[in-house]
Amino acid sequence: MSAGALRALHVPGRPLVLPNAWDADSARLVVEAGFPVVATSSAAVAAALGHPDGEGAPVDDMLAAAARIAGAVTAAVTVDAESGYGLAPADLAGRLLGIGAAGCNYEDTDHVGGGLRPIGEQAARITELRKAAGDDLVLNARVDSFLGAPDEAAVFDDAVARGRAYLEAGADCVYPILVRSPELLGEFVRQVGGPVNAAALPGGPGLSALAELGVARISLGTGLWRHVRGVLQDVLGGIAKGRLPY
Q1: pTM
Q2: Is the distance from CB of 69 to CB of 104 less than 8 angstroms?
């Protein structure tokens, strides 16, 4: 699937659903289940490689894992590239295109300096990434304003300003990750004026409810990996007590 075809799947109210994978095997299962696109989860990939999230894994290892996933499926693959792993936007674009990625997540957290990058700085990075990639990458610009925010309403205006700026800079979709209030998410969709990615969170709105809020894309993020990992923990605990799961 081309980036253009992936872009066309971002339909407000009829969102693209992405059960994020972490290796070639889980990616194949996503495709076998009928999903047209495979997204990676940086946290899950990093954990599978023995590293923490937040750009704790070497860039070469993360991109090699993404390349194995892209090589294992015929579906489009969109890569969680975190904040770019210190690569210049043009270099990141080249490496993503080189492994066959059709899209990427690109976040505004500065993992080296800490905190969020200024809006103008992140918008400029998105513009550079878009210029280097042309139309061959679907850019999902993550808005991290709500991460760790004790009062979501207090950071809402900042999130909207970031979303608007990132879309204007060339992003195809914006991702206000971890906003938990359905009301604020719906208002974000209304105010930002472009395709919005939402996270499917435990205890939050379900897939149909998120669609009704007008989002164009839904990510499970680490949700699928955490669920599978929890099942494995339970099974291992049973084996330790002498109970085989089969």
Answers
A1: 0.95
A2: no
How high is the pLDDT of residue 1? 77
How many other CB atoms sit within 10 Å of the CB of residue 144? 23
Q: Are 50 and 5 in contact (CB under 8 A)?
A: no
- Token pair, residue 74, equals 């015929």
> Taking CA 96 as the corner, what is the angle to CA 93 and CA 98, rounded to the nearest 5 degrees?
105
Long-range pairs for 113-120 at CB < 8 Å and ≥24 separation?
116/144, 116/145, 119/161, 119/162, 119/165, 120/165
Structure token pair of residue 29: 């299962």
Q: How far apart are CA 77 and CA 81, in angstroms?
A: 12
Distances 97 to 8, 38, 104 between C-alpha atoms, Å: 19, 15, 10
Residues lower than pLDDT 70 in the chain? none
Q: How big is the CA angle at 110 (ends 78 and 227), to the nearest 5 degrees?
A: 50
| Helices 59-72, 89-98: crossing angle, 10 deg rounding | 30
The superfamily (CATH) of domain 3-240 is: Phosphoenolpyruvate-binding domains (3.20.20.60)
**Number of Cα atoms under 13 Å in the Cβ half of residue 116:** 19
∠ CA 105-23-142, nearest 5°, is 10
Residue pointed to by tokens 């918008």: 123
Contacts of 166 (CB under 8 A, 6+ apart): 108, 122, 123, 126, 141, 143, 174
